[in-house]
Amino acid sequence: MSFAQWLFALANLGLVLLVLLLIGAFMIYGERRILALLQDRLGPNRAGPFGLLQPVADILKLVSKEFFVPPFADRTVYTIAPIIVPLTALLSFAVVPVSDNWWLADLNIALLYVLALSSLRVYGTMLSGWSSNSKYSLLGCLRTTAQMISYELPMGLALVGVVMLSGSFSLVEIVAAQELPFIVLQPLGFIIFLVCGIAETNRLPFDLPEAENELVAGYNTEYGGIQFAFFYLGEYLGVLLIAALATVLFLGGWHGPWLPGVVWFALKTLALIFLFFWLRTSLPRLRYDQLMDFGWKLMLPAALINLLMTAVLGLFWMEG
Amino acid sequence: MHEIIFYLTSAIAVIAAGAILIVRHPVHAAIYLIVSLLALALLFFLLGAPLLAALQVMLYAGAIMVLFLFLIMMMNLRTGQNRPLSLPAGWVPAALLALFLWLELLLLLTRSPSEKVGDVTTIGPKAVGNALFGPYLLVVEAVAVLLLAALVAVLYLSRRRQK
Predict the structure, then answer these.
(1) Domain range for residue B25?
(2) Which residues of B touch A76 (CB under 8 A)?
(3) Fewer CB in 10 Å around end: N or C, chain B?
(4) Do the domain assignments include residue B117?
């Protein structure tokens, strides 16, 4: 590769980064408006038309706050930890294909790459909780770790079904193989993936790591200003990532009649994001032992059964 | 450009590994180990083994080290400082053997410097799978039995004592 090509690749990365950060900021606005709508309130509607400038106001407020490290915290780790959360989410987007000729990278291990990054994500919450040196943060971080490890496993197993059907780890090839969306062939896999995705992003009803009424917000209790914004951004980018992945893996990605591929991709992703917001208004938080039981005693066996069924059926269909 | 990335990554891997010995705090040491493992994963990727790189991140950096850190946090080792390693008895022969190995390595490296590293052939996940479930099937089965044995052992050790 020549120098110009490297430069071009870097510029592309920068553009995608900017767009993703903007989407993340507006998702926060969107969630507040949708939550308000579903709860018969108005939500933020003062800054700009329909309150559309609310994210700008939020960012300005968070940036202008003091950069503060509590004296009892572990300085270095405390500063680095919040960056990990949005970073891993942003890196994952490199392999997500938006339309049939539009993606940053087409790795032949794309799916494993995404899973690997999602398993690194746990360090952000874990180290922030530990380095804050406060009991609420530590409890929150222990919960997060246990939760993320427990739900990573069924998530990965649910995806093996998709890999079996398409015969590839590459997300581009997986979408190309979906003339019939895999949700029809893998309904159980889709449900397991979505539930585990909600748990991985710590959203309701699985938001125990930041249960505000018992843990005072859990792992990010001691954070403020721009560092708090990193966690917040990371959470919403995580939601966007899970929605985009579910679209790519199960809902047929860019496939769809009449409209161009990008529009179909965006519509499916937005519908899933709306589902995330909807769940937040409708469901109560689970108890901690229920969460663990649900993960290990229901999700994991279900994922294993799904895998076995796919293998057996696939063997008969593909051979016969 | 690839070479720059390669040497940079190697340097990070070695420095992070060295830092594990120096830092005082167990959690910091664990973080350096994670960095070293990630750098190794990148090296695997550069050398044409993407599957190995992904598995290295998923299993070592993403699963095993998480459990390491989890344990360190659970046992709350924050006050106890990481004491400098005292040399175990009988370290001289071990050090001599290591020195010999290192000299051999240097000799080998200087002997064939002309052999240039050719174009890296990338080994995809499918090839690895075919190899594992083709010629190495027996080994995979043996590992599966070993893991099962480990699982049973853990269940036995963690059972509730009956009165």
Answers:
(1) 1-82
(2) 28
(3) C
(4) no
